[in-house]
Amino acid sequence: MSSLKQLFGGGLRQYGMVLALLALLAYFQIATGGLVLTPSNAQNIIIGNSYILILAIGMVLVIIAGHIDLSVGSVAAVTGIIVAIALRDWGIPWWAGILLGLVVGAVIGAWQGFWVAYVGIPGFITTLAGMMLFRGLNQRIGHSSTVPVPEELQRIGAGYLWEWGPNTGLNNSTLLLGVLAIVAVVWSEMRRRARATRLGLDQPPLWVTVVRVAVVGAVIAYLTYLFGTGRYGTSFPIAGVVLVALVVLYNFVASRTIGGRHVYAVGGNRAAAALSGINIRRVNFFVMMNMSILAAVAGMVFVGRATASGPSDGNMWELDAIAAVFIGGAAVSGGVGTVVGSVIGGLVMAVLNNGLQLMGVGSDTTQIIKGLVLLVAVAFDVHSKVSGRPSIIGLIFPWLGKGKKSEGTPGTEEPAAEVPVSDGATSRH
Amino acid sequence: MKTKLATGLVALAAVGAMTLSGCGSSERGGDTPAEGGESAAAGFEDGAKIGVALPQKTSENWVLAENLFNDGLTEAGYEPIVQFANGGVSEQQNQIQAMVQQGVKVLVVGAIDGSQLGSQLKAAADQGIKVIAYDRLLQNTDAVDVYEAFDNFHVGELQGQSLLEGLKERKGEGPYNIELISGSPDDANSKPFFEGAMSILQPKIDDGTLVVKSGQTSQQQTATQGWEAENAQNRMDTILSGNYKDADLHGVLSPNDTLARAALTSAKQAGKDVPVLTGQDSEVESVKSIMAGVQYSTIYKDTRELVAATIDAVDAYKAGEEPEVNDTESYDNGVKVVPANLLEPVIVTKENAEETYAGDPTLEDIFK
After folding, report:
1. Which residues in chain A are closer than 8 Å to B112, comparing Cβ atoms?
2. Is residue A391 part of a domain?
3. A230: domain range?
4. What is the pLDDT of residue A35?
5. Mutation to test the B interface, candidates A52, A146, A207, most B Cβ within 10 Å
6. Whole-angstrom distance, CA of residue B203 vs CA of residue A270
7. Which pLDDT tens digit goes with each residue over A288-337?
8. Which listed site, A391, B172, B184, B368, has its alpha carbon 20 to 30 Å from B96?
9. Which domain holds residue B76?
């Protein structure tokens, strides 16, 4: 059993979600008569959900650190309107508009990070205030009207990579990306084995590595084929490239950098992290600011896709992002979760949405189903996690769960030890 | 060991099977896309799928439209796909993409925000799908073929006219104090409503017959975000407490029934007499109010007529022809002038209410 676990290399939870995704794809492929796994539909799924997935990348770090961010939709909306108006009225080039959007995201993130990290207001409250504040700002700045954006930004949100080179029957940009991805996977596996050998570590047998690489390679090859054989002029969407780049970057940051590991530490056990010398304030500030920057990116991608920035953009996006993160395996109590898991969770929701729409199911029924899926996914989380810490639910509603002594359920007693932490951040919740 | 190997092989087989199933779906093959205009001559066959993308299911006339489209299209021999986008613009975008994916021949779009559907409409047009803008104009795109709606500028004119008549009838001699309300700024229809009304009212404001005490006379100042009653009521409360402490409010131009009732509530709570109110949509509450002598007028836009006209347009496309239009100049959506088929709205007051609503399933019951 252990080599099988090594084959799949992740927690049971993450493995479970990938299986769920495959099951959904298979079900809808059959139920819609083959409409799901077509190039144009696959491209639609990516384009139509990339902004939520980008939000999920940032949101997972926030949730791992033990906070939550409710303002992301409003931040995305206000960034969208500022960029749209700047591009229209100041005549700046499109890339300057994007830089402006990132700066706006950083400023907002610094603002929220300040309140959360240095003043100590819980993230829930700060970002709830932010949600209202930035929604109002969005409507004020844009006078609640819809502002169109130029071609180049539209291309980023809804456009495709270039066609070039010899006729291979596929879009060559997509082919190139697929080849690069496979090479990267093979190379990183070889490096991992080489390093393990050099350090004298216990390794899984060679066949495990080969099968793993083969499976991943086959999946990448299939996806390359799927995205590359769309109508002439289409390819793996640019929004998808942005998404994949961000996933690779943040996966690296979360699992391989000191800053990333600090986030997990703070979320996992705040007092211990503080006593180990981690600067809690800086970590909190970083996750909040990072979230707002990613929200700005998501806002710009969405505005590009929608060809215009509208007054009701960003409504309810935070809930979709949070749902994606929890379905993807983050623990309600913080300290657990992965970037890739959240993206898979987001894709589960996206495929569900897409499949139901292809079947012609109404908007109301779709909402009901999505709500149930989220509930069931978190139910698994509660039952498979062995955690005694108060959860987010427990933090918000401290009166829930008082008197219940069952282990592993949210809202359990056991408050974190009231250790006075040196940099003044209290563990008061 | 055997079970482990077996599980690993099953996983590989699953991936392999999906790969094979995907193999048949290449959309390439050297074809260039966009046979757009040429295929218009060909039309399409019976039993074709028609996609209808409606906005939020928030008012009576949209619910009615859903049923009418389902019944009417089925009767005309098509397969309708009618969806509401309660989740907002992004849901509507995804629904339109899904409809294109399902192979619809004609797309009828009642947009939540007519300027944010450009990419999806372009994708539809590239595949030769005809796009009909239903009731709300689709902006900033050339991927729209015809606009089916009631003449919204004329609606505004009728509202303005009926406000003047109501004032003369109920409020004695001028000058009259009035206030103006306009619709949501992101709804393309708010502008023609307001401009139509102002074309009648502005001359009277200029010559002193009408006085707008708050001074708010532009569309932006008078806007009601999201067409929400609470926004109109809040604004009215502020205007009344600021400008009407010792004066009477004689009339309010309201673009629809919901906002008219909001203005009425505001006036009542401020202790003012009932002003002359205009409206639109012939909502049940407002029709009752008109019959009781409170609200002065509303507009009747028979949804049945609009849906029938839209289905006629679908039939025309099926036969490979262009649908009937009666206005090819007024509706410039920012990229092209969209040919429009405009229907006549009817102004309804207490006098003609009963005969106007005879035959309307929801409203005729009020008179029984």
Report:
1. 312
2. no
3. 162-236
4. 87
5. A146
6. 70
7. 999 999 999 999 999 999 888 888 888 889 999 999 998 888 877 778 88
8. B184
9. 43-144+302-340
